[in-house]
Specification:
- By secondary structure, this protein is of the alpha+beta class.
- The chain has two domains: 90 residues, Acyl-CoA dehydrogenase/oxidase, N-terminal domain (Butyryl-Coa Dehydrogenase, subunit A, domain 1, Orthogonal Bundle), CATH 1.10.540; 115 residues, Butyryl-CoA Dehydrogenase, subunit A, domain 2.
- It is 37% helix and 24% strand.
- The strands form two sheets. It has a four-stranded mixed beta sheet with strand order 1-4-5-8, with helices on one face. It has a four-stranded antiparallel beta sheet with strand order 2-3-7-6, with no helix packed on it.
- Helix 1 packs parallel to helix 4, helix 4 packs antiparallel against helix 5 and helix 5 runs parallel beside helix 6.
- The two termini are 18 Å apart.
Amino acid sequence: MNFEIDHLTEEQQLISDTFNRFVDKEIMPVAEAIDEQGEFPMTQFMALADLGFFRLRYPETSGGVGADFVSFCLAVQAIARGSLSLVAAVSMQSLMGTHFLHKFGNEDIQQRLFQPALDGKKIAAICITEPNAGSDLSSIATSATKVEGGYKINGQKMWITSAPLADFFTVFARAGDEKKLTMFLVEKDFDGLHVGKTIHKMGCYALPTSEVAFEDCFVPDSHRLGEEGDGELQLREIL
């Protein structure tokens, strides 16, 4: 993706310059080492949080910057120039990992999870892909059965970005009489949540991915994000 310099606004140019300078100084000198070590680049992750990257796409009323989408893309482009592992991690955090908490989370979720995630102090993950379905939404089999006070989730997810480090997961499961996709927020200490070991990949070695399993994992009603059955619609909006 290339943007003509003459067509950028002053704010867009400022964001582009800021993140490119950061990449030149803080990422390029260690980019090779990041992948060779194969460890999550927490130092650079937190530095980008301090730079405001995770706040770019959210409105000022929610503690964000309220930048436009072009500005966000310019920042992503700059980070990708330095490290694909890092840009994948921070993009997941700033978009799908936190989007649904911002849109549907109650006050407790906003203050306890969403705001710390914007500071990089909580790591987010999203659980869509499954072993027998890939990312085909129509084939997702993970279920959420209604019980008193909440739901019990059962199923298996695969290739979940940042899962070994995640503090919370946005999970897509089938709920209700019509078994339609519904979103749930699962915190890392919920009983019945099992995160597998990191899966070795052919690239992006510093970006941990793993299997995530749910075994009668109880999720309270307060942690259903949105209405029953509107998960696919909400996901397609952001995709």
